[in-house]
Design brief:
single chain; alpha+beta; 15 helices; about 40% helix; globular
């Protein structure tokens, strides 16, 4: 039997998307502000493809990833006309004209727009959104194949190989590291880079995100993200942290706590010998520590006994800046850490359900690849926010509302329309 909450959420979505998910989530004034901030305003008033139209076009490309430029424009025309966003009479643009308009717009307005509108979608009534008054957020990365052009290869590189190698991958890859809300899967911040060369790793891109964390967030991260420098940078943002660490990290037991966790201390890897021992004893005694040398943490360790594969029986070690066990007991932290997998679900929604499994981005230059990626991020955020609002009203977990079904509803609602004469 179908759960009544799911039925209610589905009906809410079917009603809401007829008004246009783009209009409700990405309003025209925000688009205009982002275009102006990037200095990409229209140079002539009677242009056939003004910047605000091309912003929505970049988003529509993500929603209709299998359609060619002309078909995407046809689907968009009627919707924009009904919103009052079509300010001039013009004929059907050619594929070449659309390409030139995309190039004039660039990727910066899309990035600026995403920064303006992409905010967490959950509220106090959304199930599974908070722990100890902090919003559950996660950071992770994924890669996307880009067309094999000389420009994309030079900008993004090939995973683990160089151009010309006998076993070089077929496509360059763009790397995207995102911060998303666990409950809604909505991505709220992102950095885009490549997979080869200096500064191309996930940690390097994540480093740019840490200074933009919010103080009421609890940021969850897998063990690949931890190092002393990045932990300090993320903690200094004021956000709370819950990160898994590798088994070889030294975590001295300073005090066992009633919930099964224990107090410990992180010490700068540049500190060794006698000084390290002194810092450990100072932390044990509860003395104030120089944050440039040592940071107090609480550690939760546990196993997942029924886990399949090589991880069976593996000890999972989590460190957190929440040092008071009364705020967030060990079992609550362990449950929260596994919400990180919601980020994986969000990445799958982006790569598989929007673009399609194994599909390559369509843009042949790095700037257009970035524009296309931000179009995907904006569409995914808009759909995820819509789902979260529907689920919250129906008093169910947003995971119960199918992303793929919602996308199908939206695509049906935005049908091809004839261009104004």
């Amino acid at each position: 039997m179908t759960d009544n909450g799911v039925v209610m959420a589905g009906g809410w979505l079917a009603d809401q998307v007829t008004f246009g998910v783009l209009a409700s989530s990405v309003p025209r004034d925000a688009v205009d502000d982002a275009v102006a901030a990037a200095g990409r305003q229209a140079r002539r008033r009677d242009g056939k493809l003004p910047p605000h139209v091309m912003v929505y076009f970049a988003m529509a490309m993500a929603l209709f990833a299998d359609d060619d430029y002309e078909e995407v424009a046809a689907r968009l025309a009627g919707t924009l006309g009904s919103w009052g966003c079509w300010e001039s009479s013009w004929s059907v643009p050619t594929s070449g004209g659309i390409t030139q308009a995309r190039q004039r717009l660039g990727w910066e307005p899309l990035a600026g727009l995403f920064a303006r509108v992409a905010v967490p979608a959950a509220d106090a009534l959304t199930k599974g959104a908070f722990l100890a008054g902090r919003r559950l957020m996660a950071i992770d990365g994924f890669e996307w194949d880009a067309p094999d052009t000389a420009e994309n290869a030079a900008e993004f590189g090939y995973a683990g190989k160089s151009a010309g190698d006998a076993d070089c991958p077929a496509f360059p890859k763009a790397r995207v590291v995102t911060v998303s809300e666990c409950a809604s899967h909505a991505v709220v911040d992102a950095e885009v880079g490549g997979v080869a060369g200096k500064g191309a790793g996930e940690q390097s891109l994540a480093r740019k995100l840490y200074r933009r964390l919010e103080r009421d967030w609890l940021l969850i991260a897998d063990r690949n993200f931890y190092n002393w420098q990045d932990w300090c940078a993320a903690a200094d943002s004021g956000a709370a942290l819950l990160w898994r660490v590798k088994a070889d990290l030294t975590l001295p037991v300073l005090e066992l706590l009633p919930d099964g966790s224990y107090r410990s201390v992180l010490i700068s890897p540049k500190t060794g010998g006698k000084a390290r021992g002194q810092l450990t004893e100072a932390a044990r005694a509860g003395e104030d520590l120089d944050p440039g040398l040592a940071r107090p943490v609480r550690v939760t360790e546990y196993e997942v006994p029924d886990r399949d594969g090589d991880g069976k029986g593996e000890v999972i070690a989590l460190i957190t800046t929440i040092t008071d066990a009364r705020e967030a007991p060990a079992i609550a932290l362990a449950e929260a850490y596994h919400q990180r997998w919601e980020h994986e679900t969000g990445n799958d929604q982006l790569k598989t359900h929007l673009r399609g499994p194994g599909k390559v981005l369509r843009s042949k230059s790095p700037d257009m690849v970035r524009q296309e990626i931000y179009g995907y991020l904006l569409i995914h955020w808009a759909v995820s926010s819509l789902i979260c609002r529907a689920a919250t009203e129906a008093d169910i977990d947003p995971d119960r509302v199918k992303f793929t079904r919602t996308v199908r509803i939206i695509r049906r609602a935005i049908t091809p329309a004839a261009f104004p004469p």
